[in-house]
Amino acid sequence: MPMRFSDKLHKPRTRINSVQGSGSGQEFDESESFDSYIEKIVRKKNLSPEEASIAMRILMSDKVSEYQQGEFLTAMAMKEPTAEELASFAYTLRKLAEPMELKGIKARTALVDTCGTGGGTLETFNVSTTIMFILAAAGIIIAKHGNKAITSKCGSADVLEELGVNINLKPQEVAECISKIGIGFIFAPNFHKAFKNVQKIRKKLPFPTIFNVLGPLANPTFSLENTKTEYSQVLGVNKPELTEKIAEVLKYLQVKRAIVVHGFNGMDEKGMDELSTVGKTKVSELKADGHIDNYFLEPEEFELKRANPKDLLGGTPSENAKILVDILRGKDKGPKRDIVLLNAAAGLYVGGKAKDIKDGIKLAEQKIDSLAAYKKLEDLISFSKNS
User: Fold this and answer.
1) Which of 273, 294, 299, 334 lies closest to 116, judged by CA?
2) Per-residue pLDDT tens over the stretch 162-175
């Protein structure tokens, strides 16, 4: 029997030093040399899964200098991480996160996250946040992992907070929210407390680091050890060349089905971390049998009008909150609704509620027009405020 990816990852053998700032008490072996990993990466050599896992534990600790952190992140950016390295880093970040156990979810139920890397050159409104309510209304369990704005004016946490959602629930409260109403928001800073140890160096470095990609991969509810839940994901990336690699990462991380996308704006290379109604979309689809298909989609295939980029732009949290509500209440029937329908359809497809994208669009329309999706927003606001 071939070795599973999870068997290659680092399992702490010696209880020496805990990673400061993590809630899980995970530990690493201090005898491992961080400098040796930096040297290996500088020589353009790839880390093994175990080495990558140990390196991430040390990087996230308070046991290395800011200079060493910078060396590691710079060398990794120059080498470019492999899918195996990214999967190992993501697995380790999940293990270092505050623990959260979901209860009451039936076996083989699809647990779906809708997220993107951010950093797209075309700054849309909060599409992936809007679609989470449509998917939840269709019976898909949603564990939305997100943060406040880093590369845009308004992140998922910003718009949800503006809408009245309490984003600062404790882990057990988030777990209860997901289990009871089928939808929950995992505010990254509350779960990944060890990130405080790399905040300074991330701000100082003049280029995107591996953490820009790792954010959507570090959902703490997605576990390699839990074989009962089938994880699915719709994940947008800010560069077209990343779709295949990230699909491969999700395969390593035992995601059952996923669609990784990069949308173009139809006129030049500027794009978005969403399925596009402005131009074509590059898709890397991870299927249930583990095969990855790569293809392009055009909005006309789904009888959607090609949009103008300016029609999809977002703004401040209050502006984006109004956009989200107008779509879910059926008031906005224009291009913003169209891009939401397309992206929601992808989520309904990987979540097993639609046979294909076209079928997913019809279902998404139904969940909006019946106000079922808006009701899910109300449920989340009510539950989070009363927890």
Assistant:
1) 273
2) 999 999 999 999 99
Domain 110-386, second-level architecture: 3-Layer(aba) Sandwich (3.40)
Q: What is the pLDDT of residue 268?
A: 62
For residue 66, the SS3 value is: helix
pTM: 0.91
Q: How many CA atoms lie within 13 A of 9 on its CB side?
A: 22
Same fold, 5-96 and 110-386: no
Distance (Å, rounded) from C-alpha 52 to C-alpha 155?
Answer: 29
Q: What is the DSSP string of 344-376?
A: HHHHHHHTTS-SSHHHHHHHHHHHHHTTHHHHH
CATH fourth-level superfamily of 5-96: Transferase, Pyrimidine Nucleoside Phosphorylase; Chain C (1.20.970.10)
User: Above 90 in pLDDT, residue 93?
Assistant: yes
Contact of 98 with 24, CB cutoff 8 Å: yes
Per-residue pLDDT tens for 263-319?
A: 998 766 668 999 999 999 999 999 999 999 999 999 999 999 999 999 999 999 999
52-74 pLDDT, tens digit per residue, is: 999 999 999 988 999 999 999 99
Domain coordinates in residue numbering, the chain:
5-96, 110-386
DSSP state of 287: -
Q: Are strands 230-236 and 257-264 parallel, antiparallel or unpaired?
A: parallel
Distances from the Cα of 78 to the Cα of 45, 46, 54, 82, 207, angstroms: 11, 12, 20, 12, 11
User: How does 189-221 read in b/e, with b if 16+ C-beta sit within 10 Å?
Assistant: ebbbbbbebbeebbeeeeebbbbbbbbbbbbbb
Burial class of residue 105 (count of CB atoms within 10 Å of its CB; 0-12, 13-18, 19+): middle
CB 255 within 8 A of CB 231: yes
Q: Beta strand 292-297 with 110-116: parallel, antiparallel or unpaired?
A: unpaired
Beta bridge pairs of residue 142: 112, 183
Residue written as token pair 């699915």 = 232
